[in-house]
Amino acid sequence: MATLKDEGLHKPQDITMSPWAVQRYEEPGDHDLPTTFDIDYQNLSLLLQEAAILYPQCAKPKLYPTLQPYTPVTVTTPVVPKRSVAVSTKDPFSEGNRLDQGPTHATDYREYDILAVPLRRKDNRLPLSVNMGSRQKTSTEGLWAGIKPAVLLGIKPRQANNDGHTFRTLEFEVPLDHHHHGISQKDAFLQLHAELVDSFPNPNPTTPDAPSSPISPQKPFILYLCGGPGDGNPSGKVPELNKFCINRGYQVLYVHYRGTGLSPLFFDSTAKAKVLNMSDQDKANYLAKFRQDNIVRDLEAIRLCLEKELATKIKWTLICQSFGGWVATTYLSFLPRSLEAVYISAGMPPLGKTPREVYEKTYVHIVRRNEDYFNEYFPEDQEHVRTIIEYLRDKAPLQKGVEGQPASFRGYELYGENGERKGCYLTYQTFMTLGRTFGSAPVIRRDGDEEDEEEEPLSPTSFIEPKIPIPYQKLHRLITSFIYDLDHSIYSRNHDNTISQTTLSLYANLESFALHRRPLYALLHEAIYCSSTCPQTSQPSNWAAIDVALSHSSGAFSWLSPTSSIIPSKKYYFTGEAIHPTPLLSPLGGPALTPFLGAAHILAQKADWPALYDFCSLRRNQNSAKEEEEGDEKGMTKVKVRAVAYKQDMYVDLGLSQQAAGLIGGCELVVCPFGSWGHGSLKEVDKTERVLGWLFDGV
């Protein structure tokens, strides 16, 4: 981008331009300013997105008091220093919109404090904007065209779930790649499982529901988007949500994302065998199709299918938890006409941020909770943790692992409830990932922390809740059992049975990654932050989480390095929601993850990810009633967007959520006034109704 230096213009040879701009200079005139900057208008939106992210100081307008407050603007307009400019939505070079005639439509006047070079065309006219309505279709838009309806494979009769509501199961078929139609091979398709909660229990349980009982075309649809990536989405997981939505006249659809829960990673056993026999590169290409962009295409295909089946227009109202907000923001970016409203709890994606920038923020929360655990609750456990790490790393039984796993390592194999082999292991590294459970524990208030805006309402369990958070109690119990085994076992410390089954069961119940049943969580966890939306996110993740941990100033995560030694009196901290490469992945994920370890490293080096967001589209989400009325004419639509964020969310940083909300036009962000409420509040029985009230009705 052209810049100013010392309030004086650069010489033409000093001016640097974005690669999206094609620069051509004429002979400088009296003002010593290059008179020609030809812009490739097909890619201008990318230029503007790039400028707003790389030079955020240029996107902070000084507003006149009479104007309504703006969220931080995404599109930065090159302006003459310290002058009011008209920010136009038409092409200033079209006939009837000459600068000497003035704008022929409504304008938005702002005064900018940041100096910038005016970009001029050959005829010395100042381009203030571009006519986005008449521009050519970009390659990104082409990726979202031509989505075909999913195939409805069947609808099962109603049945009651564990929250008392009735639901019916729907099975759909969608392409693995929505851009390739007409392929007949089964491995080119995926099956999606969905559950539709549409009523209260049948008052006459002796009357069976007819298999042909129709889905109501009158009730609007809520689409619940769960967290992840990699989680299933059962309809009875948030019972109070079902009650709230049905009372408001909705029916609620729960779709298991592709490759998760009851939507299998492969179409059938034949397709599975074919994928498992692929090269690591081909496996990586296959797995790359399971991010949120293709999840959105699946959901759109289901919407089109239901429109066809019910012969009515359908717009989703999205309720999103955690990663569901990532999915919803992609949906809002590229297919806003399919949406009525978007409600997000603890799930504002870090727009324009790299994986490393995200983990630098989240590790602040991880460290804080470790400090709470070791400094305030169980200081004696720091020495115990050093003992456990040293034992598991150097003296635990040697394991060869299951077929396909890498070289031997030390640890204990875990078994299922019926004694079946899970292929997962307790190692010193998997033990130190147990900090992932800290997210549901409230933090201890420090000096400088903001006071809660409201007093937290009492819940039915308020008088019996322990002073020590439950996640900390469970971890302390495991550590105590571990140390007891080491001190009292009849076996030597290098014997296979030194650690009791009681301790191993405590660990298995506390370990929450569960990669053996949701491998996509590990394989795509960093990939969900990678996008060609802007330059800094157009780069590989490079296992950013471990890089941030090892470079942390405390040195408390040095145990991640296989060459580090255990130093007496040194503090060691647990990690949180962060995925690290092998040898950690193999013991955690077992045979479900092992075939994809090579592909995981390829994905970590992948730089050519498709765009997950369109900043210009997000920003254009209408803000006024007048614009909403004109939406159809302009080719735009208004989608109501409201989100709830939490002050001490360990998984989704509040500051990043606030920045993201500012990039979405019309987005209202509600910051939860209760410091002890956290990431999963939407799913907690005594908090669900309050959170949904904020989302639907505002504060």
From TrEMBL:
One of its GO terms (molecular function) is hydrolase activity. Transmembrane segments: none annotated. The keyword Hydrolase applies. Keywords: Hydrolase. Residues 442-462 are annotated as: Disordered. Belongs to the peptidase S33 family. This is AB hydrolase-1 domain-containing protein.
